[in-house]
Amino acid sequence: MSESALEALRINARPGTLFVAEDSPPPRIRYFEYDEDVLEAGEVEDPEELRCYAETERPTWVDIQGFGDEACLREVGEVFGIHSLALADAVNVPQRAKAQRYPDHLLIVIHAPHESFGQGERLPQVAILLARDYIVTFQEHRYGFFDDVRERLANPQGLLRRSGPAYLAYALVDALIDQYYPLMAELAEELDAIEEEIFERASPELVARLHELQRRTTQLLRIHRPQVDALHQLARIDSPLVPEPIRIYFGDVEDHARQILGSLEAARASATDAMGAILALLGHRQNEVMKVLTLVGTIFIPLTFVVGIYGMNFDYMPELRHRLGYPVVMGAMAVLAVVMVVWFRVRGWLGGPSGR
Amino acid sequence: MSESALEALRINARPGTLFVAEDSPPPRIRYFEYDEDVLEAGEVEDPEELRCYAETERPTWVDIQGFGDEACLREVGEVFGIHSLALADAVNVPQRAKAQRYPDHLLIVIHAPHESFGQGERLPQVAILLARDYIVTFQEHRYGFFDDVRERLANPQGLLRRSGPAYLAYALVDALIDQYYPLMAELAEELDAIEEEIFERASPELVARLHELQRRTTQLLRIHRPQVDALHQLARIDSPLVPEPIRIYFGDVEDHARQILGSLEAARASATDAMGAILALLGHRQNEVMKVLTLVGTIFIPLTFVVGIYGMNFDYMPELRHRLGYPVVMGAMAVLAVVMVVWFRVRGWLGGPSGR
Amino acid sequence: MSESALEALRINARPGTLFVAEDSPPPRIRYFEYDEDVLEAGEVEDPEELRCYAETERPTWVDIQGFGDEACLREVGEVFGIHSLALADAVNVPQRAKAQRYPDHLLIVIHAPHESFGQGERLPQVAILLARDYIVTFQEHRYGFFDDVRERLANPQGLLRRSGPAYLAYALVDALIDQYYPLMAELAEELDAIEEEIFERASPELVARLHELQRRTTQLLRIHRPQVDALHQLARIDSPLVPEPIRIYFGDVEDHARQILGSLEAARASATDAMGAILALLGHRQNEVMKVLTLVGTIFIPLTFVVGIYGMNFDYMPELRHRLGYPVVMGAMAVLAVVMVVWFRVRGWLGGPSGR
Amino acid sequence: MSESALEALRINARPGTLFVAEDSPPPRIRYFEYDEDVLEAGEVEDPEELRCYAETERPTWVDIQGFGDEACLREVGEVFGIHSLALADAVNVPQRAKAQRYPDHLLIVIHAPHESFGQGERLPQVAILLARDYIVTFQEHRYGFFDDVRERLANPQGLLRRSGPAYLAYALVDALIDQYYPLMAELAEELDAIEEEIFERASPELVARLHELQRRTTQLLRIHRPQVDALHQLARIDSPLVPEPIRIYFGDVEDHARQILGSLEAARASATDAMGAILALLGHRQNEVMKVLTLVGTIFIPLTFVVGIYGMNFDYMPELRHRLGYPVVMGAMAVLAVVMVVWFRVRGWLGGPSGR
Amino acid sequence: MSESALEALRINARPGTLFVAEDSPPPRIRYFEYDEDVLEAGEVEDPEELRCYAETERPTWVDIQGFGDEACLREVGEVFGIHSLALADAVNVPQRAKAQRYPDHLLIVIHAPHESFGQGERLPQVAILLARDYIVTFQEHRYGFFDDVRERLANPQGLLRRSGPAYLAYALVDALIDQYYPLMAELAEELDAIEEEIFERASPELVARLHELQRRTTQLLRIHRPQVDALHQLARIDSPLVPEPIRIYFGDVEDHARQILGSLEAARASATDAMGAILALLGHRQNEVMKVLTLVGTIFIPLTFVVGIYGMNFDYMPELRHRLGYPVVMGAMAVLAVVMVVWFRVRGWLGGPSGR
After folding, report:
1. Which of A182, A258, A308 sits opposite E308 (nearest CB)?
2. Residue of D4, D200, D285 lying closest to E185 (CB–CB)
3. Any idea where the domains of chain B sit in the sequence?
4. Where are the extended beta strands (E) located within chain B?
5. Which helix (H) or strand (E) holds D257?
6. pLDDT tens per residue across span A143-183
7. How many CB pairs lie under 8 A apart between chains C and D?
8. B281 in contact with A at a CB cutoff of 8 Å?
9. DSSP of B171-201, one letter per residue?
């Protein structure tokens, strides 16, 4: 279903209704129960099988990829006691990035760039539901954002294995925010390339590229600003779900998010400045072109009029008969041309392309 | 009465005076008394008949559509003990969106888009008065925003029937805010269409469409910003009228309102950027056009002068008599033309439309 | 005295010095002592006569119009025990809008539009001094802002008579803020008129009108923003002078002031957008005009050169003697013209005024 | 020493080092010990002589003008027990405006306009050091800002003599902020003059004046914004150095500073708007000029081509021989001209300068 | 490794991983243990040798220049008990400026300009880790920012020797912030130079220089704004690591940083204004050039048409035969020219270059 069709559907719906885009695959549910000694990983078809993991004290991470089966998602919600609004926010993409407290859990919604970005205005959304003993993550597609975290979890000496679900939540959020760095580098390179070309050759294609850059930074800012707020909240949250020492880690991710925000804002400001510079350059070139035409026209149009006079066929034009008529007229025109050139030089029009 | 005539009337009026636009129909008063077991719905002519519902502890929703009878509205206010300022804010549209606490009730004023939007600058206003045991909603016209909530209320298993008036208030506000999604989708589509056309063919009609988009987003931002504030207040309100678990729901609507705000701000920024891009493109095309004229003029105006010389009718012009006069002049002009073309190529004017 | 002359005077003056514009009439002092049963109104020459009213517990409203007698104003200050800074702020117009607490009273300074606005940059200032048992209002001229409040005060059943001075202060402030509504309607109409005309015929007069609108909204924003702050303060003030139930009323005026602020900001944003649209339209028209000239020039200037060649008077120009010389040249020129028209059509210059 | 040379020097310097511009005269140290009964004024060469005044409880004002002797300034610091950072901030101009608390004193740094402004980017800085029993003021040059305060201090009945050093500090700050009023009046007049001229005759000189106005308001805003913050702090400071009743006075100066800030911001916004209006007007005039050229060119260039045809010297041009050739060609050209004029009128180019 | 390559690497990395640019030299580790009596300075190869200094109560400053050996840096972290996130922030440049509290230490990250700035977008980063008894500073290259602090430390009478590590931290931060002053002076000079030239001769080179200035101020603002926040935090921090009297010092650095911020923002605003002024000037010059061409064209193109008429070779053109034909035509053309000149003068086009 297209985004706008989905949005139309949502109106007048009961709160907590789940809407799923048609192209979302059926859910793939993987789980990882771990502590310092043991890591038990597996994949289940029926969320009911996860109930035992939901009830143990050992931390469990349930990763759901694909939303193509509403009943299944509802069952996940039921097994883990997820608030209906939290489940709806996790599944009904896109939501605003947030860190929302519910009585028994914390819902973190983050958007991260993916290769798919650029085609649309939407970044993939990942929802992380953090409870005392488990984490459930929701992804609409199989994005692979967490491949590396899974690998680190396999390492029995890793900090991940020795820490609780809050640290895992941090690691997941950190992995998502890290996705922005290559995107930022790409934006910076594109901006540099455009700025260089402006002063070389400003074409409509360059204006289009610059405008596209403006559009992208505007969209990214719209998506990213609430993320910074959500991370700010997490770094200062007063909840037993995020113990004090873990908040420092969230504070570190917040700093990265703010760094990205600063770069986005700077990119946006520079793009606007660049558009202004293009306008000034175009105005300058226009002047240069016009000066050439005006120069040529101002010198030759009057002279052409003069030679036109002596091309007239009146019977009684005594000058035409005079022996010196021709040289005198030619001389007068030469004087006129010289006067004009001098006048233009005085006004600075002939001082080269950068003249006044 | 026109909006400005109404506004003129309001000056120097006593606080609490009710002003009603002439085209507002007479009030249609419907009521819904409900709990888990029972739903009693009906319509009354005389607000006095509602007094019994105002006094029971069972939740009652009174929905008033049309303001065309001031006495009747005053009677509603009297029956439900509504503060005169609250009644005035509910009836004297348009008010700023707000969540205002009064000693015994809470007044929520929200504006929602309707098909009628686009003709004027005003969005329909809905006022929701939440008291301990009842809700009164005020709508100037029969907008139909709440048709779906009414249907859900008819379902005895629904959460609505099991929850108090605060949850109903949430459902009503949510229904109103949801109205913005199709409008946002429409704005986004219009913006995309305009941005695509800019680089195809920038016409005054496109500038007009873009400016109209700017005007609409400006108006929507003016109306929507206070809504976000009102919902923010509701999500954090410390009042027995909105119990703690319901505040999470208002927080969810607040998030939606903030998402809409983010989109509106991004649309406005993009529209401004697009206007800048149009200017740059027009400047570029202007240069392109001027270069063609300057090229042609600079080459042919001097040549025309030369042929004008030899069109003069002086008796004594020896060149005219010479056998080689004609070919020499033609050759000289050809050389001059070639020199000029080379000069233009050096300056980059002949390197194609995107040349410097 | 002109505003700048007055400002020059103020430098290095003792705090509390009173400066009065020369054109301010001598003070007209009216008083209204009232309670539910009695209304005693009158006019005095000598402020000393008011001392008895200042001392009773019955609420008294003293309205001073005209500042043309400094000694008299000082006496008012002395009779009512007004802080010297408060008196200076009330009389030395224009001050920034404020709600300033003094040990025994509260000074509210508000600016309201008047017919006189438009000639200058200054809106009339009204100062309202609220004490426990009396109110003193200061107006530089006889503006008539409070005519209606006076009438309502004459009604023994009115809320005004039953409430204390704080409610009267609210009624006065409300009357002042209401003055903005017709001004806002006028601005909105002017903006609509300008926006319509932009796409019809953009003239320097239109630019001037738009710039004047920008100037007015800038000035109004400068004056109005502190008013919103002052009303915000009043609605939350923790002072026995404004009892809790009256604060709701001030909150209502604050909402109106915020609505006006929102409209002013939207008007300013739209005016700026409109200026951008004018620029884009002018750029477009320029392109259109230039294309016509370039088209005509590019086709006919070379052709004129060609006919000039055959207007030369060389003795030996064999083509001139040839029977087919004339038709061949005419044909060649026709072909050249057709080629050029085709070339222009390919570049899109002949696809109508909105062509690329 | 030039400002940038001074700044270069400051790098890597020890905190508390004093840097003095070369053109600062040697210090002139005056003192005023006063209470209700006595005023003892004098001038000293050696700061050591002031030690007795520093130790009495009677308020003393020490005014230092000129920084040309570092040892002397250090001695002042030693005598009055001034924190080394406070002394450095007072002497190393320019500092950001501030109200900085030190354990034993309060340092207020304010900048005020002077005739000298306009040549540079710097406004004179005055530092006021307020302690329990004395005030020390630091001025780089003999600006004369405080002449009037000195006169008022001579008046034994004045409030200044009856109040402590905090009130004197207020009087000094008030005198400094009052310096802005004539500057603001001047800026407003210049802006008015420019805005009037824009629609009369927009010249490069006008653009330069407008840009200079922008530059000045930008600089003034940079300097003035921290002043508003400092005064805001003073009006709310919780320090025994500024007793409660004096804070109201500082609140009054804060209001003046905010009024100035509002005017500066409005001036800046209007200047930017004016630059936009100039652009639109230039675009319009350009269109007007181009339309004249295009009109003339479009009508006469083709006609000139036509007459050129019949100026060709082919032997066989039968039209030339025909009796009606001349009148027919002239008639055809007249028809062509009329058609073009009609076409231009239809496009609205001949509807006067404000035509489309 | 290039910056973007480094950024790509960072994705999916474990938190706390260290990334080092390839061109960073191997670490040079110097230490300074000092108190009022003793200063022991030295250089070590193996961080393990520093363990004794980490454990004494005497303050020690360890300065690390160059990150080219990850194992060594890790060992430093281990010896001084540095939190893994703190170590990562110190080494993985560039980080956002910050003042981050960890359980046992405080990490201050500051960026300072260096000659190397200008080539890239990155300012050198310095991290200062402040613990109770020691300070560790991290610099990627041998920048020499602290040469002067080292010299001052050598002076046994200096305040540095008598104060603890917090004062040393202040001295280091102050030295870094002071690096901005010459940069600010340079920016101000460049801006002045550009603004002067605008009204002299606006060239594409000038636009490029102005745009470069915009780019630099944007980058500097992005880097510097978080620094002001970090210093603001330090000046108000409630930590035993920064005793109360030292906070005043950090407050002073904060003021300097705010002054720099104000200058950067003013420079950015002025640069944007200057670009607007360039546009207006170019528009004006364009008008001037076009008026000349239009003037010449409008006068001479019709006249050339007239002389073309009498250059036609029709046999029957009676005017040609008339004795007065020539003078009459010449006179008529003179009249036409005069009429046009008068018309142009009326429109104000001949009132000089600044005409309307």
Report:
1. A308
2. D4
3. 1-158, 288-346
4. 28-34, 39-44, 60-65, 98-101, 106-111, 125-130, 134-139
5. helix D244-309
6. 889 999 999 999 888 889 988 999 999 999 999 999 999 89
7. 192
8. yes
9. HHHHHHHHTHHHHHHHHHHHHHHHHHHHTT-
Closest CA of chain B from C287, distance in Å: 6
Place of tokens 């029926």: A46
CB-nearest partner of B301 from A210, A226, A300: A300
CATH class of the domain defined by D282-346: mainly alpha
The C-alpha atoms of residue D96 and residue D107 are separated, in whole angstroms, by: 12
Q: Using a CB–CB cutoff of 8 Å, tell me whether A197 touches chain B.
A: no
Contact E16, E82 (CB under 8 A): no
Best residue in E194, E206, E215, E336 for a mutation probing chain A (most A CBs within 10 Å): E215
Regarding the domain delimited by C1-161, which CATH topology (the fold level of the hierarchy) does it fall under?
A: Beta Polymerase; domain 2 (3.30.460)
Cβ pairs bridging D and E (under 8 Å): 194
The correct CATH number of A286-346 out of 3.40.50.620, 1.20.58.340, 1.10.760.10, 3.90.1150.10 is: 1.20.58.340
* CATH number assigned to the domain with residue range E283-347, chosen from the 4 options 2.40.50.140, 2.30.40.10, 1.20.58.340, 1.20.120.680: 1.20.58.340
- Quick one: average pLDDT of B88-111? 92
What pLDDT score does C118 carry? 54
Q: What is the CATH number of domain A1-177?
A: 3.30.460.20
What whole-number distance in Å separates Cα of residue C21 and Cα of residue C14? Answer: 18
> Does domain B288-346 sit in CATH 1.10.260.40?
no
CB contact under 8 A, B181 and A7: yes
Q: Which residues of E179-209 are buried (b: 16+ CB within 10 A; e: fewer)?
A: bbbbbbbebbebbeebbebbbeebbbebbbb
* Helix or strand (DSSP H, E) at E130: strand E125-130
- The chains in contact with chain D, meaning 3 or more Cβ pairs closer than 8 Å, are C, E
How many residues are there in chain D? 356
Q: Which residues of E touch A322 (CB under 8 A)?
A: none
Query: pLDDT tens digits for E155-214?
Result: 888 889 988 999 999 999 999 999 999 899 999 999 999 988 988 877 888 999 999 999
pTM, two decimal places: 0.88
Mean pLDDT of chain C: 87
Contact between chains at A226 and B301 (C-beta distance less than 8 A): no
DSSP per-residue string spanning A135-157: EEEEESS---TTHHHHHHHH-TT
Residue of B nearest to A120 (CA): B192
Q: What is the pLDDT of residue A356?
A: 38
> Up-side HSE of residue E126: CA atoms within 13 Å toward CB?
26
Tokens 């077991």, residue located: B37
Tell me what pLDDT residue D223 has: 93
- Closest CB from B11, B13, B221 relative to C179: B11
pLDDT tens digit sequence for E92-150? 888 999 999 998 999 999 999 987 655 455 789 999 999 999 999 999 999 889 999 99
Q: B258, A317: Cβ pair inside 8 Å?
A: no
Out of B4, B10, B310, name the one closest to residue C314 (CB).
B310
Q: Which residues of C touch D356 (CB under 8 A)?
A: 200-201, 285
Is CATH 2.60.120.260 the right assignment for the domain spanning E1-167? no
How distant is the Cα of B218 from the closest Cα of chain C, in angstroms? 6
Phi-psi region of D346 (alpha: psi -120 to 50; beta: other; left: phi over 0): alpha
Residue A60 CA: distances (Å) to CA of A42, A63, A83, A108, B241:
11, 10, 19, 17, 39
CA distance D234 to chain E (A): 17
Say if residues A90 and A107 touch (Cβ distance below 8 Å). yes
pLDDT of residue D120: 52
Judge: C8–D185 Cβ closer than 8 Å, yes or no.
yes
Domain B1-158, architecture per CATH: 2-Layer Sandwich (3.30)
Are E215 and A198 within 8 A, CB to CB? no
